[in-house]
């Protein structure tokens, strides 16, 4: 499992779920090659639907299928799953209270050479305003599989944000992901909350800070909505907070944490993320430097909030 690309985890898990549940089906938007879902067509037959490059129609079709009792797993690029098809997602899936699982891939800088049109820094912000939905940004293959399985059995609208390629394995598969967070490092001076590809950067930042005598805990806060308020308040009682996300600092992980902190346990805080910029062409490592999403940026933010 740990060596699998996230797209392989997705395809394998959907196939497993579909073998056990005849109501599971997969919808694709002309990305079977990119996402590796081609084999699902062979395994699922007419329960695999490729709508072509028509993401709004993909959401509408999923809604109709959900009404008849199917459990649709919907995949496309993250910006097209949210920004492009937002009205259908909001009304046909959210407002109608349908059970559906939307998987938006290659978010933020991981869109790389597809450039600004395919590089969403706003998808989480859009999805957060839909009432009673659930939002995850996964960081690890074991975590991704567990969340897909949970979304299959739970009810409601789910949005799962993930890369397609291989992610660094952070877990063993034995973890309990039900609380919406996992503490990956203990610390006494403050907290770094991160999600997705920024978890690895956060861990590196914490290691660098440790060498300078600064101890911060690192928490993978992968369930962005509903966010676990208890762990955020607990962290605020410990000390200053830094959040790190591959997303605009407005409306995403940092905003959600700040809302909880402000209303319950005010503390000094800084958000690492994209600031007033659109996407652009480039490799992930280059773009992380451009947008200030590297471990060094997190480290500097921690030192700032700690006055070090």
What's this entry about, in short?
This protein is of the alpha/beta class and 308 residues long. The protein is built from 13 helices and twelve strands.
Domains, number: 2
Question: Quick one: CATH class of the largest domain?
Answer: Alpha Beta
SSE pattern: HEHHEHEHHEHEHEEEHEEHEHEHH
The major β-sheet equals: 7 strands, mixed
Beta-strand portion reads: 15-25%
CATH topology assignment of the largest domain: Rossmann fold
Q: Mean pLDDT across all residues, rounded?
A: 96
CATH superfamily of the largest domain: Thiamin diphosphate (ThDP)-binding fold, Pyr/PP domains
The secondary-structure class comes to alpha/beta
Strand order of the largest sheet: 2-1-3-4-6-5-10
Number of strands: 12
Taking pLDDT < 50 over at least 5 consecutive residues as the criterion, the unreliable ranges are none
Distance between the termini: 41 Å
Q: How many helices in DSSP terms?
A: 13
Give the overall shape.
globular
Describe the structure.
The protein contains 13 helices and twelve strands. By secondary structure, the protein is of the alpha/beta class. The protein has two domains: about 5-160, Thiamin diphosphate (ThDP)-binding fold, Pyr/PP domains (Rossmann fold); about 180-305, Rossmann fold, CATH 3.40.50. The strands form two sheets. The protein has a seven-stranded mixed sheet, with helices on both faces. Helix 8 links the parallel strand 5 (about 135) and strand 6 (about 155-160). Helix 1 (about 5-20) packs parallel to helix 8. The longest helix has 15 residues, at about 5-20. The chain is globular. It starts with 5 loop residues before the first helix and ends with a helix. The relative contact order is 0.13. Belongs to the transketolase family. It comes from Enterococcus moraviensis ATCC BAA-383. InterPro entries: PDH/Transketolase, THDP-binding, Transketo_C/PFOR_II, Transketolase-like_Pyr-bd, Transketolase_C. Its cofactor is thiamine diphosphate. Pfam families: Transket_pyr (PF02779), Transketolase_C (PF02780).
